Amino acid sequence: MTAIEDIPLTDVTTTTVRAACPHDCPDTCAMLVTVENGKATEVRGDPDHPFTNGGLCVKVNNYPDKVYNPERLLHPMRRVGPKGSGRFEQITWDEALTEIVSRFRATIDEHGPESVMPVSYLGTQGILNGLNVGDPFFNKMGATVSERTYCDSGACTAYTMTIGATAGVDPESLVHSRYIIIWACNMVSTNLHLWPFVAEAQRRGAKVVVIDPMKHRTAKRADWHIPIRPGTDGALALAMMHVIISEGLTDEDYIRDHTVGYEELAERVREHTPEWASEQTGIPAEDIRTLAREYATSAPSMIRIGVAIERHAGGGQTVRSIACLPALVGAWKNVGGGLLQLPLWAHPVNWGAHMHPELQTPGTRVVNQYLLGRALNGEMQLDPPINALMVYNSNPLVVCPEQDKMAEGLAREDLFTVVSDHVLTDTARYADIVLPATTQLEQKDLMFSWGHFYITYNEPAIEPLGEAIPNTELFRRLAARMGYTEPCFTRTDDEMMAEAYDWDAPAMEGITLESLRESGWARLNLPGPDEYAPHAEGNFPTPSGKTEFKSSIENNFVVPLFRQGSNDHQPGEHVDPVPHYVPPRETADGGYRLNLISPKSHAFVNSSAGDQDKQKRVQGEQSVILHPQDAEERGISDGQYVRVYNDRGQYIALAQVSEDIAPGVALSPMGVWRKNAKDQSTVNAVNPFRFADLGNAPTFSDTRVEVEVV
Ligand SMILES: Nc1nc2c(c(=O)[nH]1)N[C@H]1C(S)=C(S)[C@@H](COP(=O)(O)OP(=O)(O)OC[C@H]3O[C@@H](n4cnc5c(=O)[nH]c(N)nc54)[C@H](O)[C@@H]3O)O[C@H]1N2
Ligand SMILES: Nc1nc2c(c(=O)[nH]1)N[C@H]1C(S)=C(S)[C@@H](COP(=O)(O)OP(=O)(O)OC[C@H]3O[C@@H](n4cnc5c(=O)[nH]c(N)nc54)[C@H](O)[C@@H]3O)O[C@H]1N2
Ligand code: SF4
Ligand SMILES: [Mo]
């Protein structure tokens, strides 16, 4: 074979392929891939895409390194060493599939299909290869339904209860906002391509406020950073409403025409004075008044909530309260006014065609992945126990809480585990069979977005490496071996793509698969960002058609998208229909005095890229940021290794002492692999398994720890 450098320049065929970043990130960037003689040499952002605007990010701009990583899994493998050792031997696809299917069949025969459990999330966000790719297969099997609620499901429940499943504000309309509150979102790291729209608004005179325990990259660019105690945002929102109502800053016409339950809300917030909220949040009462007044009197005023807003006992009610604010002041009347959570709801994705919930046996057991450690190690006393696990698009050992219980469960000799991934992740090391998956450059897909109004087409740029296959092909092969004959199990990628969206929906007018393939992306057929004010005249997709201060949905629920389409066992327990305060669950009384939060890393996407050299260099090792006061009390100096611990577990972290973090709060970014950590455990070793109040959301920010020098 001729080495690339030996080929005369004139013989090199260079093409540019239109692709899409696959990551679970609101930006869903349009990528251009340079391919030279069949090898991808570069990725860059599409300069014509209004959101991507020519740039990718530190997580992805060396994507070819991920594709050609020498550690890539290129063949199926079978475990030969003890679980967790990472010792495997190469086998053929035929051997792998035969073994998987015979082990699945054996446990189904002996214990029933619920003894098999899939574990997956958003390793790729593609409609074909992402969230729902395995759902039809496991629904048909009757396997335990995997509830996947660790990202925004509590916020989705709360948001839907209040204003319905609406797209909310077009992120590009933010340039028109005059007052922007960025609430629990580190945009410059996690939603980078939205920042230029905020910066443009700021240039035009808008005030940008960040509410966050950490003065992070985004907060440093804001006009006002308001440090808050984690998990107390609900108190702040209620007190803002108290000020707005008691000082007559409401929009009476908007309230009369487009809301229900105002009397009950006004009654509820009467007791929630700024002084009361100050005690909960640590924010001076006068600052709370100023924030409420400025927010209510600037038009258009805008709130961007991050996913982190839901990660504590009262996360759901917090989002309920925040979602009431725009209607209270009539913010929705203007372009650039209102609330931005998940514009995903603008995308008419044909979810049913991907999940096939009708294949599910009614009454099938549901187990939440957030409890996976307990489900596997026996503490949940499941009957039947989980004897076979299939993991794809996820790395649960890093992203789920109670990491030690999970490691204990995964090490069970009687558990048969299959993992499909790009590399041998922490979870894959415990697998009995590992399967090689293609990366985005080797597979075809169509991308929705949870951060903007564009659909993006991902054309495969190169041939699959080794024997890697896309998830779609993996489930076609498995279904054939299991003898599943429904038409959905033999669909080609092109056929799946044709079903991906509801092409007849008004938002899809003028968009076809052919046009998408040609141009790489298209904006949904909605009014432009200079005109889009979806709720200027109300029209909320709630039962009443209004913002529901008092919700007509009075039971807790999980959006079916997060549970393989299942609507079983719904509705959940009764919920007070008027927003109220739910304080953090864990307090200093237990002896662990620091409130730990574990938001996203700057250089990883969840745990993805956590093993890539460049990203590891940028991110550094597992760290913990402490306020100088807290560090001094414990005799800790910057750069020292410390032990972070509570009753659930511990990990070793490099201490960073900084005024940027609020006193009493410790911050450890998530995503570091156990394999790369000092004592083989990372921040999720200490996080709790308990849910928040709505939508079975996680409580990663509702954790108490102590820290000591090692
Ligand atoms: N670089 C990078 N980008 C990513 C990801 C990644 O892993 N890395 N992951 C993607 C995914 S899956 C998601 S869900 C999004 C999430 O992105 P974001 O919504 O930005 O969420 P986080 O980064 O987890 O947390 C944001 C901020 O919330 C703060 N915070 C934590 N608890 C509380 C609280 O109780 N109240 C308040 N007010 N603030 C709090 C943290 O200090 C942090 O600064 O990012 C996406 N983009
Ligand atoms: N402490 C703490 N924990 C958290 C969070 C937090 O903020 N703090 N955030 C939570 C949130 S918001 C989220 S979204 C979850 C994320 O949880 P996950 O979605 O599990 O995220 P990743 O760890 O990135 O795992 C994705 C895996 O899928 C693999 N993958 C990527 N593409 C493909 C593919 O095409 N095929 C196959 N088979 N595999 C592929 C990747 O290599 C990677 O190993 O983590 C949650 N956990
Ligand atoms: S991770 Fe997000 S910001 Fe980075 S390239 Fe992908 S979509 Fe864009
Ligand atoms: Mo997420």
Automatic annotation (TrEMBL):
UniProt keywords (A-Z) are: Iron, Iron-sulfur, Metal-binding, Molybdenum, Oxidoreductase
Q: Which cofactor does it need?
A: Mo-bis(molybdopterin guanine dinucleotide)
Alphabetically, the GO molecular function entries are: iron-sulfur cluster binding; metal ion binding; molybdopterin cofactor binding; oxidoreductase activity
Q: Which Gene3D superfamilies match?
A: 2.40.40.20, 3.40.50.740, ADC-like domains (2.20.25.90), Dimethylsulfoxide Reductase, domain 2 (3.40.228.10), Formate dehydrogenase/DMSO reductase (3.30.2070.10)
Q: Where are the transmembrane segments?
A: none
- Would the keyword GTP-binding be found if you checked this record's keyword annotation? no
Question: Which part of the chain is the 4Fe-4S Mo/W bis-MGD-type domain?
Answer: 14-71
Say which family it is in.
Belongs to the prokaryotic molybdopterin-containing oxidoreductase family.
Q: Which PANTHER family match?
A: OXIDOREDUCTASE YYAE-RELATED, TRIMETHYLAMINE-N-OXIDE REDUCTASE
Q: What is this protein called?
A: Molybdopterin-dependent oxidoreductase
What is the scientific name of the source organism? Pseudonocardia petroleophila
